[in-house]
Amino acid sequence: QVHLVESGGGLVQAGGSLRLSCAASGSTFTRYSVGWFRRAPGKERVFVAAVWWRDSRTYYTDSVKGRFTISRDNAKNTVYLQMNSLKVEDTAVYYCAATKPFYSGSAYSADYIYDYWGQGTQVTVSS
């Protein structure tokens, strides 16, 4: 089992940057694929980005491609989400999530494949 803790959220002006961190503990982190999701006020939680355990392949939702970068540092048991050129519509609570170890599927954007979730971190982008 793995325990996830997000950090790095805050208030930033449009066009600015933030880097979110997802620190994992409790298990060998290299075995887990990790995703970032977000929930905007009054909306459902949606997929943002993911990095796969086997080959570190990355995936992004279209609205953040070219602006956000997901990466992992297995030595630090941490996954990062670098967010650049932030927009007001990026305002949300951001959650990181991990699959079961050695997940063999490919449904990276589906929240049901993720078994472990952090508590979330608030990102607010002002105009």
Word description of this protein:
This protein is mostly beta strands. Helices cover 0% and strands 50% of the residues. The chain contains no helices and 11 strands. It has strands spanning 3-7, 10-13, 18-25, 34-39, 45-51, 58-60, 68-73, 78-83, 92-99, 114-117, 121-126. The strands form 2 sheets. Strands 2, 4, 5, 6, 9, 10 and 11 form a 7-stranded mixed sheet that branches. Strands 1-3-8-7 form a 4-stranded antiparallel sheet, with no helix packed on it. β4 and β5 form a beta hairpin. It is globular and about 40 Å long. The model has no long low-confidence stretch (mean pLDDT 95).
Structure summarized in a few sentences:
With 127 residues, this protein is mostly beta strands.
Write a concise keyword list for the protein shown above.
mainly beta, seven-stranded mixed sheet, about 130 residues, four-stranded antiparallel sheet
Q: How would you describe the shape?
A: globular
| Helix/sheet category | mainly beta
User: What characterizes the major β-sheet?
Assistant: 7 strands, mixed
Oligomeric form: single chain
Which consecutive residue ranges, at least 5 long each, have pLDDT under 50? Answer: none
Tell me roughly what share of residues is in helical segments.
Answer: under 10%
Average per-residue pLDDT, rounded, comes to: 95
Distance between the termini: 40 Å
The amount of beta strand, in percent, is over 45%
The SSE string, one letter per element, is: EEEEEEEEEEE
Total helical segments:
0
